[in-house]
Amino acid sequence: MMARIGKALVIGAGLGGLTTAAGLLRQGVETEVFEARPTPGRLLTGGGFMLWHNVFLSLRRIGLDEAVAANAVRIRHHEFRSDRGRRLARWDLDGPTRDCGAPASVLRRSSLHKVLTETVGDHRIRLGVRFTGYTQDATGVTAHFEDGSSARGDVLIGADGLRSTVRAVMRKGFEPPPRYARYTAWQAITQLPGEDVVPTGTFFNLWGRGGLRFLYCRLSESEVYWDAVTSDRAAAGIDTMNGTRRTALMDAYRRWPEPIRSIIASTEEDAILPVAIHDRPPAGGWSQGRVVLTGDAAHPMTLNLSQGAGQSIESGVVLAGLLGPADTEAVPDVLRRFEETRRERTADMVTTSWRIGTLGLIHHPLLCGLRDLFMRTTFDSIARGQSYSLMLDGRLERGPVLPVRAGGE
Predict the structure, then answer these.
(1) Mind listing the pLDDT tens digit for each residue in 370-402?
(2) Contact criterion met (CB below 8 Å) for 318 and 397
(3) Residues 6+ apart with CB under 8 A from 367
(4) Residue 35 forms beta bridges with which residues?
(5) pLDDT at residue 325 in the model
(6) Are residues 334 and 322 in contact, defined by beta-carbon separation less than 8 angstroms?
(7) What CA–CA distance (Å, rounded) separates 96 from 109?
């Protein structure tokens, strides 16, 4: 009788790594997570984001959908507008919520991370441990760390993000850097009560002239999450050297309609975090023997579909579901099957998100007007249908609930 997997090593305590660990532990697989960041506070950072229906369907498979929903605000409409305040499209999300049985919601990244951390358990997460490489043989894989320590398991899962060390070691350093999308997202959460200012339940997505976009939604009675997305050309006129980030963004969006200026003005300077947006063109080669990549280490994507975190969670659940019942001798075959299962779906997400992002790089007023016309005529019908077809394709997120098995303690 072949032995089941005894231990899994996960490199990276982000959303993808912790989801994978939670799924494996649910099935009784002993799992240890290794994270280079030294303190829990360094992990519980970031702004807010939207989790679409498919993410909650995936979280349901590992029994975490209700815990995450308890910390979230349900979104009932996704509204697209121009920088002159004109409505371009408005998606009703209640219908899809009823049809698929799962909501779309917004929440703090730190809230989701906390749910996953508590599920995995602090005692299984080693902080301040920097991964440097691995060695493997026919019976297992050993992870090596900067402090000279090592750990042995049946499988090693690289969930260490866009600039994954596991990925670099797997490819022996021969790989192009991440692809820069030519825009930056200035992310923040601000204290701004008032339903008349920002109503609960609507995610607002504004497209402007001059390479500017703005996204915002209410996170709670008192909090609003926002993203100011600026192309490189637009960012060249945003002067943060002679003033604050807040005043520079106030100036860049000075002609935009309310509540944009009020949102920016209410935000503490230290809360505004600029993030240069990158992805990688879809590529195979996620596994090597008993080592596999998942989440942003395998399929990083831009923010335009709000699916980066979602696809990391989906991949984590699928990977755990494949590994949980597997025999240790079958690990290399299981990892190849994981890539075959996930590659097409994530590649479609990466490519579509990249293409949507290029619409935000348009500067010329005439071309921006044509883009707005395109959005007014297609986004409530064709674009909405394509988005939901991509999101809820029925192949993965409706999979079975992973069984709860003893072990992994």
Answers:
(1) 999 999 999 999 999 999 999 998 554 557 899
(2) no
(3) none
(4) 127
(5) 95
(6) yes
(7) 24
Residue-level pLDDT at 183: 97
Beta bridge partners, 48, equal 108
Which stretches in the chain have pLDDT values below 70? Answer: 1-2, 40-46, 394-398, 407-409
48: tokens are 């807010």
What is the value of pTM for the model shown? 0.95
Encoded tokens for 11: 């490199």
